[in-house]
């Protein structure tokens, strides 16, 4: 005879073509927030978490994009508009998730921007915008996510999206590289402080991933080729590659993983970053001569 619980477990969860048995789901009943969830890596992580049984809120400054992407992911997905470079945005994001889902278990801090400018031409405003979201924003999001998790008293997991540029310098990307190096250190400090509350804090350092953020670089043949020459695994990454790592880090399989940055990059970090300023200078020279 089949018991009631067995019947419930037999229920199939359907997400797009990804049909899974609830017993196999790694995040059943978990509630996750994904900042920057309206695009690229954040969206890829949100999609994977929902396929694994989670309820997910996308938090993004781009309201139209977040609404559209949440619609694609169905009933298990909600969205909220928040500018996560400021404290008001982080506070409102936490209010929104608690109002909608009643709690928080997992936070993915993926909202980020980049800029390309040589130091001698870079404005203070450009620097502040990049560091203000990528580093200050990660601090503010973590602060309010951790307060919620501490108040609930059942632990939780926070994953910050850093970059190989936390360790690998790139000419023209001083603000970005420094912001990501800061995220790596911030993750270590947060892991120390929050361990007593059962909260794990980790980071992922992606290599180059095919998203709208990277599109202006990889769309240029010479730059794409230089990336590929410097990725031993022979291909550019996908949001799904990063989602797989995020799923591991938030799962119980990673119960003793905290304070670390997991680089997911096809071994790109073993090589060197493309010489972007040189490449753009060559392109500009070619155009002026042509
Ligand atoms: N794509 C890559 O090659 C790559 C590599 C390493 C690290 N990363 C990091 O991954 C993260 C996601 O990048 P992506 O490639 O998916 O970029 P993306 O541009 O596709 O997505 C970033 C999202 O952040 C949102 N956002 C921008 N400013 C915001 C703000 N002030 N408040 C809230 N949301 C804001 C955008 O609206 C967008 O939806 C970033 O932190 C980025 O630095 C990306």
Task: Give an overview in words.
This protein has 290 residues and is an alpha/beta fold. The chain has one domain: Rossmann fold, CATH 3.40.50. Helices cover 46% and strands 16% of the residues. The chain is built from 10 helices and 9 strands. It has a 7-stranded parallel beta sheet, with helices on both faces. The chain has a two-stranded antiparallel sheet with strand order 1-2. Helix 6 links the parallel strand 7 and strand 8. Helix 4 packs parallel to helix 5. The radius of gyration is 20 Å and the shape is globular. 44% of the residues are buried. The N terminus is likely disordered.
Strand and helix order = HEEEHEHEHEHEHEHHHEH
The parts where pLDDT drops under 50 for at least 5 residues are 1-17
Binned, the helix content reads 40-55%
Structural category: alpha/beta
User: How many separate helices?
Assistant: 10
List keywords for this structure.
single chain; 290 residues; alpha/beta; Rossmann fold; 7-stranded parallel beta sheet; two-stranded antiparallel sheet; 10 helices; binds nicotinamide-adenine-dinucleotide
Write the layout of secondary structure elements.
Blueprint lengths: L3 H7 L1 E4 L2 E4 L9 E5 L4 H12 L3 E6 L2 H11 L3 E5 L5 H15 L4 E4 L14 H29 L3 E6 L12 H21 L4 E8 L8 H4 L2 H9 L9 H12 L10 E4 L11 H14 L1
Bound molecules: nicotinamide-adenine-dinucleotide.
């Amino acid at each position: 005879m089949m018991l009631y619980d067995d019947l419930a477990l037999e229920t199939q969860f359907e997400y797009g073509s990804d049909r899974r048995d609830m017993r196999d789901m790694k995040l059943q009943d978990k509630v996750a927030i994904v900042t920057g969830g309206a695009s690229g890596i954040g969206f890829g992580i949100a999609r994977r978490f929902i396929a694994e049984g989670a309820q997910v809120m996308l938090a993004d400054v781009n309201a139209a994009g977040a609404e559209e992407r949440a619609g694609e992911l169905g009933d298990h997905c909600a969205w909220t508009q928040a500018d996560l470079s400021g404290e008001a945005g982080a506070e409102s994001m936490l209010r929104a998730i608690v109002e909608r889902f009643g709690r928080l278990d997992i936070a993915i801090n993926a909202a980020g921007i980049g800029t390309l400018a040589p130091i001698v031409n870079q404005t203070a405003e450009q620097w502040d915008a990049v560091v203000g979201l990528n580093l200050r924003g990660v601090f503010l999001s973590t602060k309010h996510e951790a307060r919620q998790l501490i108040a609930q008293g059942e632990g939780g997991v926070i994953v910050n999206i850093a970059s190989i540029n936390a360790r690998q310098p790139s000419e023209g990307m001083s603000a970005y590289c420094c912001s990501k190096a800061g995220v790596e250190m911030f993750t270590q400090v947060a892991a120390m402080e929050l361990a007593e509350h059962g909260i794990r804090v980790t980071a992922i350092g992606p290599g180059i991933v095919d998203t709208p953020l990277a599109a202006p670089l990889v769309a240029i043949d010479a730059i794409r080729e230089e990336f590929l020459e410097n990725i031993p695994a022979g291909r550019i990454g996908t949001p799904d590659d990063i989602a797989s790592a995020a799923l591991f880090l938030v799962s119980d399989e990673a119960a003793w993983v905290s304070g670390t940055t997991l680089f997911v990059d096809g071994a790109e970090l073993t090589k060197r970053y493309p010489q972007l300023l040189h490449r753009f200078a060559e392109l500009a020279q070619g155009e002026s001569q042509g």
